[in-house]
Amino acid sequence: MHFKPKDIRGLTFRRRLFGYRAGDVKDFMRHVVEDYETYQVKESEIVVCQDEIVQLKQIIQTQEETNKTLNNTIQQLNKENERLQVFEAEIQELEKMKELAQKTADVVQTEAKLLLEEAKQQKDKLIQEAEAIKMNQLLNLQIELGELVNEKDQLNHQLASKKTEYFELELQYEDMVATKDRVSKEAQVLKQEFLSLRSKLIQKYAEGLDEFIEENQLLNQPTTDESTSNVIKLTSKRIG
After folding, report:
1. Contact assessment for residue 59 and residue 186, using Cβ atoms and an 8 Å cutoff
2. Nearest to 218 by CA among 27, 87, 36
3. Could you read off the pLDDT of 21-47 as tens digits, one per residue?
4. Which helix (H) or strand (E) holds 107?
5. In terms of pTM, does the model score above 0.85?
6. How far, CA to CA in Å, does 222 sit from each of 18, 217, 232?
7. Cα torsion through 28, 33, 39, 41, rounded to 10
8. Phi, psi dihedrals of residue 221, rounded to the nearest 5°
9. How much helix, strand and coil, in percent to the nearest 5, is found in the chain?
């Protein structure tokens, strides 16, 4: 750019006979200054729009990264859900084993009572041996039953812990979904504002350009006085 608005405002021309009318020159210079000032304002607005476009691209990139994180979280939740289903199936198997052990214990106790009744008819030694054998069996069954109960309690504790972790992951997922919706809405609003601003700038620039062309056409219209036209051409060359 060869001139600035302040340079054009301070520009003067040497006067010659049959030169341009001072009023027309001043009007032309005033319009040129206004166009330069308008151009500088629009140039600043374009720079601001470019910065906003960069910010929008960053927001979109952040949103894409958030979507990737959400997808990974969903996959982890699905895996945890499958593991919970496996734990529940194991607990059901343990419940069945407990019921079977309880039934076995009941049967053994019933058989022990019958054996004790039969042993009463035998000698004291046989009774003692039979009682010792059955008591050992009962003790072993009780020990096994206790171990099963302990294993069940441990599995219940692990299941409760996993359910708590699953609940926390669900809360995190809901927070991430809410954040994703909020970022999407903000991006849409910014996009609409940018499109509106760009259309206004384009409209203003087009209007200013049309006015400038119309004024130049008026200034370049030929006059009826040929001598004055020649003088104007000569003076124009000297000014250039």
Report:
1. yes
2. 27
3. 777 777 777 788 788 788 888 888 888
4. helix 22-120
5. no
6. 16, 10, 11
7. -140
8. -70, 135
9. 90, 0, 10
